[in-house]
């Protein structure tokens, strides 16, 4: 069920404290932690504490929670003292989503080319 923790979900396990992560920020509704395979000097994931398959499902079912995630991407960038950064939501495998709950990437600390990938 959308929003409910999933037993087989890595991010749900991180939220539940069953899998370690390097947490950089936490609110009542979100958790931000360093990516284990960083693509830049700063690469932090911001996730909702509720489980949604992807960003589109999150936005449709819980727009206020999607806004919380987006607000936290800004807070992470400020905490990391990034003058410029990229916020990325991958939705679907064709877009590069490899972990299925919704999450945002905060990427910065180096020049980022456009178009990406």
UniProtKB/TrEMBL annotation:
InterPro entries: Histidine_triad_HIT, HIT-like, HIT-like_sf
Boundaries of every HIT domain copy: 10-117
Pfam families per UniProt: HIT
Superkingdom per UniProt: Bacteria
Name of the protein in its database record: HIT domain-containing protein
Organism (species): Streptomyces galbus
Lineage: Bacteria, Bacillati, Actinomycetota, Actinomycetes, Kitasatosporales
């Amino acid at each position: 069920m959308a929003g409910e923790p999933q037993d087989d979900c890595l991010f749900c396990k991180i939220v539940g404290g069953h899998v370690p992560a390097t947490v950089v920020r936490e609110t009542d509704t979100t958790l931000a932690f360093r990516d284990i395979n960083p693509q830049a000097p700063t690469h932090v994931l911001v996730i909702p504490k509720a489980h949604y398959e992807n960003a589109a499902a999150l936005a449709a079912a819980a727009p206020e929670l999607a806004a919380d995630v987006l607000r936290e991407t800004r807070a992470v960038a400020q905490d990391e003292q990034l003058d410029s950064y990229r916020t990325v939501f991958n939705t679907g495998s064709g877009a590069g989503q490899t972990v299925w709950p919704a999450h945002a990437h905060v990427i910065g600390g180096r020049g980022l080319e456009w178009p990406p990938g």
